[in-house]
Fold this protein.
Amino acid sequence: LGRLQHLHLPLLSASLKSVTILIASRLTIVPLDALRATDGLLLLIPLMQRSQEAEAKLRSLAQKCRLLSIDLLRQCTLEDLWKTGAQLAGAEVSETKIWEIWANEVLTREAEGVGRSRSAAKVRKRVLSQR
């Protein structure tokens, strides 16, 4: 819905309820799912400007998805972390906040013993080669 930039209220309500249940229940999901949910919620926030309450709820849920994404990325292997980045690129996710979550985890792991800017260049090269 966020990518379509369309507010279909019954579908939006069902989607938000599902994401809320998923987060609260701690069901097993892959990091990509949490990142994509965060992406969709962030894309919906500008569409909710007419209702401050709805916008606040979306921001809160997006923040919870963000935290879940960070936690899931920290738990995955380095190989799965790189696969997730390739999947984000393949899904054409362009929201910088989503890439920031992923890149921070990669840089945290890659920066050991290497400068941060050098590590960032290495990350960029590897992501582009996996597309």
User: Anything to note?
Assistant: The CA atoms of residues 72 and 128 lie 23 Å apart. The two ends are 25 Å apart (CA to CA). The helical segments are 9-25, 31-44, 52-75, 78-90, 96-110, 116-130. The mean pLDDT is 81.
